[in-house]
Amino acid sequence: MTDTIEQIGELELLERLKRFMPIGQIDDDTAQIQSSKKELLINTDVLVEGVHFSELTTSAHDVGWKAITSNISDLASSGSKEIIGYTIGLVIPPNTTWIWIQEFYEGMKDAMEHFGGKLLGGDCSKGKEKVISITAFGELGGIRLHRANAMTGDYLVSSGVHGLSRLGLSLLKSEKVINKIKLGKNLKERAILAHKRPMPPVKALHALEACKPIELPWRAAGTDSSDGLINAIRNICESSNCQAVIHKKSIPKDKDWPTGNMWDEWCLNGGEDYKLILSLPEKWAKNFIKEIKSAKIIGSIKEGSPKVFWDDSSEINLNSKYKFQHF
Asked: What pLDDT shows up at residue 10?
């Protein structure tokens, strides 16, 4: 019989979780971090069962991977290349099995081994559904990306294609809407992998720093597209008090992406793609797309009150029914 958390109790749970952390790390209620001369970036991300994952579509291992990588994406899109560590707030129903917890922590461990950082501690409690809150700590790198740094004349750049995670979710849920079109096997595999095992834009950040023209200042706006491409662009416009113009022919789609309104909307608003969205001077933008083959110039920044337009001057609907929703 598989042990549940209610059966093994809190003390035994903590004892079993110790192997995922440095020795002695959770013997106290606080975590000790070595002081750094660099500025720190701190991010907290929450995953809620039934909103961000479910047992129908996501394994415990994949939930653990996403819990870590979603935080790394936020840190990378702010300019952090070195991850120090993470704390976790874990709420679980008492009937949750130890096997689920173990596989969840194994998923977090795999992500940390891939991207860096270590688990520093946290807290746990019982609740009606699983809730995972990760706080991540990272060191600021050579550039501080901020949504408020966009300037008129900048080029808008996406570090990769969008829509795959939304398609992956649809495939995992066997939604009827995708039965009307034949999808290639490779596209399906890429989509499911994108949803279950998202990759934060760490390589894109390294490339961005490496390809900066020497004569330009370290000024760039950036965010990630975890809540959708249009939402990311809108956030840059709101923070920088500017407008964005998006080229319809430059929507960053997978090479095998189907045509049609819904498919465009999934690219624009599907969410959980975790790409780097940047506002850069022209020369820097052109250097960047040479460094990152999946990157693409998708539009530009102009003066005006915060709005997002197509290149035919029509305003983009920011309240699409396909928009990624937290609530």
From this structure: 64
